[in-house]
Amino acid sequence: MSASSMKSPMSAHVMQFSELLADLAVKDIKVWVDGDRLRCNAPAGALTAELRDQLQGRKGEIIAFLNMATAAAKQPSAIVPLQSRGTRIPIYAVPGHVGAPSSFLDLSKHLGVDQPFYALQPPGFDGQSEPMDRVEDIAEYFARQIVEYQPTGPYIIVGYCSGAPTAFELARILGQRESEVSCVALFGPLHPTTYGEWPRRLYFIARGKAESFLHETAKLPTFGARLRYFGSRLREHVRALVPLVGKSNEPVATDPVLASRALLKSTAIAAFQRYTPTPYSGRVCIILPNKAWLRSGAAPHRWLQVVPHAEFYFGPDDCNEASMLMEPDAPAIADLYRQATQKQNT
Fold first, then answer.
1. Is 112 helix (H, G, I), strand (E, B) or coil?
2. pTM of the full predicted structure?
3. Where do the Thioesterase TesA-like domain residues begin and end (predicted)?
4. CATH number at residue 176
């Protein structure tokens, strides 16, 4: 899970799935998983060549997505098992402000089959419950769910981006109740002051947008491809501005899923802004995408005010915070996590 206003690659990734499944539902096209196969039932003429290509090209991802959703429905509402087997200390991970458990899919895969990994889904993500506007309340909700699912520790608590404060508070709550928290790992954590200080917030958002743009254009093979990408991004910004300058008073139809996610995002950011961390004596590992991110405006060094013994680990120079848990950066970040836990066990 981040507290910036820009759409992260992972939120776009999840949105693509949501849009694809919504498009299929409108056309009364049903998809389901049968073992290791993706099945489809569609009315005559409904399954266009474009939709067929999308289903074929992303079959593995869609199967993983549907399996995760099915597994989540069988668990306590906050617990989403990404890897339920293994002998290592289980990880319970708090996503960023969009609340997407799938943001940890790639990382959990690279941590291996012996590492139990559970993502935590916040209230409001399912569109049925109301989001909470205090970090302390969200952490308390997660603590109850974790103890219900696994009554005794040890636990490893993970937080990503703006989910870091909730993970930090969650570890404090569990520790106060004498549950063993082996380690708290914060991936690219934002400190609440990132959004509490306007100059810092603007700098962080602007830098993030620039880094994301440069990261994506660097992947493109030709100048022409980069120019086309720039044009597409520019058109996106223009389209986003159109509703702001339009004068129509006609009601706009709103997708209820998108509306609930937007409410969750705004509520989570408000909770993040008003949270004040307090001292914590347990082990904390802060894993940053790269050393330059210390100057990103995210203020990771301010965590030392409440955890002066925190350990810092740095990813490769070309790693981007918005995609650090995804391919192709996930293997390097998984290695950093293993370094931290191996150090603990020595």
1. coil
2. 0.67
3. 92-294
4. 3.40.50.1820
Per-residue model confidence as pLDDT tens digits over 218-231: 666 776 665 665 56
Residues 6 or more apart whose CB falls under 8 angstroms from that of 41 comprise: 29, 30
pLDDT, tens only, 162-201: 899 999 999 999 999 999 999 999 999 988 887 655 444 4
Distances (CA, A) of 126 to 18, 79, 220, 291: 12, 12, 36, 36
Q: Would you list the DSSP string of 54-69?
A: HHHHTHHHHHHHHHHH
Phi, psi of 65 (to 5 degrees): -65, -45
Residue 42 lies in a domain: no
Residue that has been written with the tokens 């991802």 in this structure = 61
Instruction: Please tell me the distance from the alpha carbon of residue 197 to that of residue 205, in angstroms, as a whole number.
Output: 12
Higher pLDDT: 236 or 337? It is: 337
Residue 126 lies in a domain: yes
C-alpha 64/C-alpha 68 separation (Å) is 6
Q: Work out how many domains the chain is built from and give that number.
A: 1
Whether the predicted pLDDT of 209 surpasses 60: no
pLDDT at 33 over 90: no
In this structure, the number of other CB atoms found within 10 A of the CB of residue 176 comes to 9
Q: Who's near 321: CB < 8 A, 6+ residues apart?
A: 2, 161, 188, 208, 211, 288, 289, 293, 296, 298
Bridge-based pairing of strands 79-83 and 37-41 is unpaired
Q: Encoding tokens for residue 78? A: 């906050």
How many CA atoms does the CB half-sphere of 63 hold within 13 Å? 12
Q: Please report whether residue 135 resides in a domain.
A: yes
